Each structure stands twice: as structure tokens, then as C-alpha cells.
Amino acid sequence: MNEWTDAVRRYFDQRNQAWVSQRLDPVREAAAADAHPAWWADVRAGFERMHYAVRRRGSRLLRAHTRIRLHPLQGPGDGAGTGEMITVRIDERITWVYQDGPGFGVESRTVEHRQRWVRRGGRWCLDQAWEADERIGLHPGAGARGLAATGSETAQGGLRDWPEFHTSRACTRFDRVRAQRYADLWWNGYHPGFVRLEDDCTNFASQCLFAGRLPMRASGTRAAGWWYRFPSGGRPAQWSFSWTTSHALYLYLVNQAGAREVADPRELRVGDVIFYDWAGNGRFHHSTIVTDFNHQGDPLVNAHTTPSFHRHFRYLDSRAWTPRTRYAFVRMPDEFCPDM
């Protein structure tokens, strides 16, 4: 195995241990970093946020397990490096087991990293580190740009068999179990029938609602309705703003789909949606789908952008969270009727 891959794996092994031990010195030692590297404060703050969030809900971490996949972007093997530097993308899948009252809970997350390692004094050292989160991902300004320009025309064929694919004149019941199952199946992946976006949280939430039989409402403009047009005959996929934008989806659900905002998150049920206004300025920037509850009755959510499974709804461990963060707890109706 290459020396640089050994160094990266040692670093992530120590990160994994630190979730429970709360000892961060071995993490910095594994990085062979200077006394105060520029990226260290952010890494340390990430651990502190996680433990603060766990303490706030009266719990504690018991175990952690990390798996990583390495994707070299630039280095000795591509002719762009000198043998002394490597830039790599790392996909880190973390699973935590935590105390949940008399039982246990499990939460998972996939985090994308970009790191630059350099060789100094015969040793690989972590020189720069970036980590994606719910704010802007790794590419500021990218927003809703598609990573895959369209969903696969072949892959989306089976979706046309779903009853909610066609506009219905009859009332349709919301299938919360189907919405939950879709969220649990695709939280760490991307359905090939839909576009994949860099800021994918609301696209994912819309897919879950669609799986739960929320009918599409077609419109001739992206600014109205809630719809997704699959690619056909060489035409790329198209979608409404409400399909992929948090604030627009919130407005559509509460104003046109019969959903209502509730004050207490414990009033929510599986399949309901939580919106996040990080800055407290009245606009929502993130969307999640409720998939479970902890022993205290707090919602646990699945989400994209940072793929998350059964994450505590408050997101106190996110770099996007601020003391001004406001939540909208949106309760979906049990039935959708055409005149809503």
C-alpha cells in the first residue's frame, strides 16, 4: 500500500476512536501536523459540537465505526505532482451507537472531505483539510447545479407505475410508511431516476414525499406547483423550484398541499418534514424527513447534502447551526384532494 494511503487511514482511525474517547491529541499526531495548523480549529470544533449535541439530549456515545473510500484528485500518479504532495477526496461513513434511555440508538452520516497531504522529513503530513456540510457543501455557489445532468431515462421508467405519478381527480392518502422506507433506502445514495444535485436536501425530501404518494401538481412555470418532469426523447429533466428549494417547498406544502406547521416537534409523525432557517432571517435553507423518534419523543431525520440517517432533528452538531436557527415543523395531511 502507498505510504500516503497509510497516513490517511491512520488519521481516520484516530478520528474514529476520538468520538468516544474525546482525546484529540492522537488525531493531530496522526496528521503529523504543525502545532496549530489552520484546519485544526474546525476539526476540533466538529468534535465539540457533536458531544455538546449528545449531552443536550441527555445521552452519550458508546461506540463509533468509520469506513472511508479514497479518491485521489491530484498527485504523483497523474503526472501533476512531484511525489511530495497528494490531493484526495475521502468519503467517510460514520456510524455512532449512543445511549437512548434504557436502550440504544444508531445514527449514521456520510461526510465528504478534501485533503492535501505533503511529504516532510520522510513523513506524510496533513497540510490542508476541507469538509462538506449543510451550509454550502464543498463548492460555494454551486447550489442546485446537477452533478448528474439528468436522471437516467431507463431507470425512471418504473416510477411511472407509481399511482402518484399521474394527476388524480380522486383523493389520495399519504403513505407515511412508504415515505419512510424510501428515506431509509436512499439516505446514502441517489435514485438513478432523478437528478442528483450538489445541494440535494430538498430534492431528496421531495422524492420521499413523492414515494409517500403526495401527488405532483403540474404547472407551465418552475415558480408554481410541485413537479418533476423526467427526461424523455433527449429532453433533459426539469423540475419546479418547490421540488429542490427548501423555502419554496415549505410554502407549497403549507399553502397548497394541506400541510400545517405545528409548534411542538413531538406532534410530528414519520413522513413529516422539518425545515431549517439557519440565520433566523425568515428563509429556510435545509429540509429533512422524519423517519423515527428517540425515547424522549424527539424526531430523528434522514437527509441529503450531508447524507444523514436517523440524525437528531436539532442539528446542533452541524456547522450550519447558529443560535438564531429557527425550525418549521410541518405536519403532512393524511389525505390529499384535488381541490387543496
From TrEMBL:
Positions of the Putative amidase domain: 174-318
Entries under InterPro entries matching the protein: Amidase_6 (IPR024301)
Protein name: Putative amidase domain-containing protein
Species this chain originates from: Alicyclobacillus macrosporangiidus
